[in-house]
C-alpha cells in the first residue's frame, strides 16, 4: 500500500471496517508498532535500572580485559540487545496471540450492536483504525462500560486530526448505545495519544508497571471517560 503524505480534511471518511480492508488495516497496525520501536528503546535506555546495568557491565568488562576499546563495544552491544528485545516484543505483538482480534474482526467487533470497528479512509487508503468492545464494569452490574481498542494512525497521516475524529466517533457511538463509560489502556511510549485522550475528556485512573512476557517492564496508563458527565 502506497500512502500519500498529505491530504485534505474533506478527503477523510470514517466508516465501518469491511473485509477488503483486512490487508491495509493490518499494515497500518504494523506501521504503528514499528514506528514505536525507537521510542521504546529510548525509554528503556533512560531507565535508571538499564543505565545502572550498562555502567556496571561496562566497568566489569573493562577491568577484565584492561582494554579501553571494551568500553564503547560493550555499550554498543547493550544498545543492540535492547533494540533486539524491543523488536522481538513488537513481532510477538504483531504476529502472536495478541493479533487474534485482527484476524477475526467480524467475529470480535461486528457481531453485536454494542461493538464496532472503524477505519479512517483517505484517498481510498486506510489511514487509521479504532474499535469498541463491551467491558465488564469495575463498579456494579448496572453500568454498561465500553473498551476502546486499536487506535492507530499511519505515520504518514499523523498530525492531521484523524485520531481525534476516530475517538470522537467512538464517543458518539457509545452514547447512542447507552454506555455509561469508555475505558482504555495505553503505555508510556504513547504520549501523544495520552495527551489526545485527556484533551477529549478521558481521566487517568491509575498507572502501573506490567511485565511483557514476565521480562520487559512496561508502564501502563488506565483511562476512563464518563459519558454521563459529558451529557450534563
What is the helix/strand order? EHHHHHHEEEHEHEEH
Beta-strand percentage range: 25-35%
Strand order of the largest sheet: 1-2-3-4-5-7-6
Which bin fits the share of residues in helices?
Answer: 40-55%
CATH third-level topology of the domain at 105-231: Aminopeptidase
> What low-confidence regions span 5 or more consecutive residues with pLDDT below 50?
1-7
Taken from the alpha-carbon principal axes, the silhouette is elongated
Write down the Rg.
Answer: 21 Å
CATH architecture of the domain at 105-231: 3-Layer(aba) Sandwich
CATH superfamily of the domain at 105-231: Gcn5-related N-acetyltransferase (GNAT)
Number of H/I helices? 9
Please outline the major beta sheet: 7 strands, mixed
**Spatial gap, N to C terminus:** 44 Å
Mean pLDDT: 81
Key terms for this structure?
Aminopeptidase, single chain, elongated, disordered N terminus, alpha+beta, 7 strands, 232 residues
Structural account:
This is N-acetyltransferase domain-containing protein. It holds the Pfam family Acetyltransf_1. InterPro entries: Acyl_CoA_acyltransferase (IPR016181), GNAT_dom (IPR000182), NAT_camello-type (IPR050769). GO terms for molecular function: N-acetyltransferase activity. The chain crosses the membrane at residues 48-65, 71-95. By secondary structure, the chain is α+β, with helices and mostly antiparallel strands. The chain has a domain at 105-231: Aminopeptidase (3-Layer(aba) Sandwich), CATH 3.40.630.30. Helices cover 45% and strands 26% of the residues. The chain is built from nine helices and seven strands; from the N terminus they run E-H-H-H-H-H-H-E-E-E-H-E-H-E-E-H. It has helices at residues 22-34, 37-46, 48-65, 70-95, 100-103, 105-109, 162-176, 191-199, 227-231, and strands at residues 12-16, 116-122, 125-135, 145-153, 181-187, 203-212, 216-226. It has a seven-stranded mixed beta sheet, with helices on both faces. A hairpin with a 2-residue loop joins strand 2 and strand 3 (125-135). Helix 1 runs antiparallel to helix 4 and helix 3 crosses helix 4. The longest helix is centred in the middle third of the chain and has 26 residues, at 70-95. Mean pLDDT is 81; it is low at 1-7.
Amino acid at each position: 500500500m502506497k500512502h500519500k503524505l498529505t491530504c485534505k480534511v474533506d478527503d477523510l471518511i470514517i466508516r465501518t471496517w469491511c473485509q477488503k480492508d483486512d490487508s491495509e488495516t493490518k499494515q497500518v497496525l504494523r506501521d504503528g508498532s514499528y514506528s514505536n520501536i525507537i521510542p521504546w528503546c529510548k525509554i528503556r535506555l533512560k531507565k535508571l535500572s538499564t543505565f545502572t546495568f550498562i555502567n556496571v557491565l561496562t566497568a566489569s568488562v573493562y577491568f577484565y580485559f584492561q582494554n579501553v576499546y571494551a568500553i564503547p563495544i560493550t555499550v554498543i552491544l547493550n544498545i543492540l540487545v535492547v533494540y533486539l528485545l524491543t523488536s522481538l516484543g513488537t513481532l510477538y505483538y504483531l504476529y502472536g496471540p495478541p493479533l487474534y482480534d485482527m484476524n477475526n474482526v467480524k467475529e470480535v467487533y461486528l457481531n453485536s450492536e454494542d461493538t464496532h470497528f472503524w477505519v479512517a479512509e483517505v484517498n481510498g487508503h486506510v489511514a487509521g483504525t479504532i474499535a469498541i468492545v463491551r467491558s465488564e464494569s469495575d463498579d456494579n452490574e448496572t453500568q454498561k462500560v465500553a473498551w476502546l481498542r486499536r487506535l492507530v494512525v499511519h505515520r504518514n497521516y499523523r498530525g492531521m486530526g484523524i485520531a481525534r475524529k476516530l475517538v470522537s466517533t467512538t464517543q458518539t457511538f457509545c452514547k447512542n448505545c447507552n454506555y455509561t463509560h469508555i475505558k482504555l489502556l495505553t503505555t508510556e511510549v504513547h504520549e501523544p495519544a495520552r495527551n489526545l485522550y485527556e484533551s477529549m475528556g478521558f481521566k487517568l485512573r491509575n498507572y502501573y508497571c506490567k511485565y511483557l512476557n514476565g521480562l520487559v517492564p512496561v508502564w501502563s496508563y488506565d483511562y476512563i471517560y464518563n459519558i454521563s458527565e459529558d451529557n450534563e
